[in-house]
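Board notes (copied after class):
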Amino acid sequence: MGIIEVRLGPKNQVVIPKAIRETLRVREGDVLLFVVQGQTVTLRARPASFTDALRGLHKEVWEGEGIDHWLAGEREAWD
């Protein structure tokens, strides 16, 4: 979609452009998530559950070896 410029209003509000609302499939009353990382803000539509939102997070931890190998290593570290 590229970069879309919007202006901050007098009450510190931003109108989300129609193209973005349609891409995110959001409507009035929907809850949105602002993810802040340093000077970067990512806008996301809130998923049906936070479990769905976290699925796949940090998958690089066990990438290449498989989760079973990674879990075995973690369990060995408990002893």
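Comment from the instructor: The chain has three helices and two strands. The helical segments are 18-24, 50-54, 67-78.
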